[in-house]
Specification:
homodimer; 218 residues; alpha/beta; Arc Repressor Mutant, subunit A; Rossmann fold; 7-stranded mixed β-sheet; globular; cytoplasm (chains A, B)
Chain lengths: 218, 218
C-alpha cells in the first residue's frame, strides 16, 4: 500500500480521536489503531514536515488539520441530492456536511408534490432540469438517493455532465463509463461492525477453543 | 492488533470483493488491500482451518462464509428504530438489513400523526411503550434516528433495558454507563473517502512536489 492510500486512514483515525477529545498520540498508539508499524507511520508523516516531537508524540488536532490540507480537503465541493424521498430529505437535513465543506445546492425529484418545496432552505427541483443545473452551478458531487431500479437512468444522465463523483446510497451497482469516481455507502458494513463488537467476548472464547482443537489434533 | 481485530477487516474486504464478483484471491493481493503482510494473513487464517490452496489462493465466497461463521454473524438480531422521521423511515425501507439477519420489529416516535402507521409492514409505536416492547421482544439492537438533542433521553431509557448495542445516526456523542456497545455512523467519513479518491491524481503530484522540496532543502 502506498502512502497515498494510508493518508486517508490517518485522517479518519485522527478525526475519531478528535471526537473523543484525545489531545496527543504516539506513533506506537497510532500503530495499534491502524495496523501499520510505528516506523512506517513516522516515515509517512516525515514526508510532509516535522509533525511529531520526541517523547511527546503527535498533537492530534494539528496533525489532523495538516493531513486535511495535504489531502486537499480545504476546498468546497458543490453537491446535489438526486431523490427527495425520506433518504434524500434526511441527508439534506444533515448540517454536518456543510461544516466540512460539502455544500448541498439542490435536491431533484420527479414527484410534482415535492418539486418546489424546500428543506432547510434547499430547493427541490424538477429532475428534468438536473443536467442544466449541474453544468451551470459547478456541481462536482451527486448523491444518489433514488430507489435502486431508478439509479441506472440517473447515472446515465450524470455521465453527460461535469459531475466528478457519485455518492451512491442505492443498492444498485453503478458503473460509469468515464472519469467519475463512485463511492458506495453500504450501511450494512457499519451494522456488522456493531455486531462484531457485541460478539467480541464470545468470539475470544471461540478462537481459544479452535486453537486448542488444532493443538489437540496435531 | 490481535487477530480478533483483524477478522472483521477480512470479512468486510471479502464482502466487497464478493460484490465485485471476484472469485479467488491470493494472500499477496489481500495484503495490498488490507495493509497487513501476506504471512500475517496466512497465519491468521491458518488458525481456523485449511482455507487456502497453494498456487490457487483463497476462494472468496467460501472464505467470506467461514469468517462470518467464526464471527457469529449467522445469528438473527432483533432491532428497533427510535425515531420515525425521514431517517428512521428511510432505514426501515432498507431490505438489506433483514437479508443479513438484522430484523426490524418496530419503529418508535412521539408524534401522534406517525404512531399507528406502518413502513413495509413494520409498525410505528408510541415511544412510551419502548422499554416494555424491548424487554418483551428480545431486542438487542436499538437504532437512534432522533434529532441529536433528543438522543440523551432515548439512551437513558435504553440503558434500563436488555439492549446490548446502539447504532447511533445522531451526531450526539453517546455514553452508556453499562455494557452497551455504541457504534456511531459518521456519514461524513464516507464522503471524505469519495473526496480523497476524487483528489488522488492531484494528491500524487502534491506528494511528489513536497518530497522534492524536502530533498532540495537538505
Amino acid at each position: 500500500m502506498a502512502v497515498i492510500k494510508r493518508l486517508p486512514k490517518y485522517h479518519q483515525c485522527l478525526g475519531k480521536l478528535l471526537r473523543q477529545d484525545v489531545e496527543r498520540i504516539s506513533s506506537q498508539e497510532l500503530s495499534q489503531l491502524l495496523g501499520f508499524t510505528a516506523s512506517q507511520i513516522r516515515q509517512d508523516l516525515n514526508n510532509f514536515g516535522e509533525f511529531g516531537q520526541q517523547g511527546y508524540g503527535y498533537n492530534v488536532e494539528s496533525l489532523y488539520n495538516e493531513i486535511a490540507k495535504i489531502l486537499g480537503l480545504n476546498t468546497v465541493h458543490n453537491m446535489i441530492i438526486v431523490g427527495a424521498g425520506n433518504l434524500g430529505q434526511a441527508l439534506a437535513n444533515y448540517e454536518d456536511f456543510e461544516t466540512h465543506g460539502f455544500k448541498i445546492l439542490a435536491l431533484f425529484d420527479v414527484n410534482p408534490r415535492l418539486i418546489g418545496l424546500k428543506i432547510r432552505g434547499i430547493p427541490i427541483l424538477d429532475a428534468d432540469e438536473m443536467d442544466y443545473f449541474i453544468n451551470r452551478n459547478d456541481i462536482d458531487i451527486a448523491v444518489i438517493a433514488v430507489p435502486s431500479d431508478r439509479a441506472p437512468k440517473v447515472v446515465e444522465i450524470l455521465t453527460k455532465t461535469s459531475v466528478k463523483g457519485i455518492w451512491n446510497f442505492s443498492t444498485a451497482e453503478i458503473s460509469t463509463g468515464k472519469n467519475i469516481i463512485v463511492e458506495n455507502v453500504h450501511l450494512i458494513d457499519s451494522l456488522f461492525t456493531l455486531s462484531y463488537r457485541m460478539n467480541e467476548e464470545k468470539l475470544e472464547e471461540r478462537i481459544l477453543k479452535q486453537k486448542m482443537k488444532k493443538v489437540l489434533n496435531r
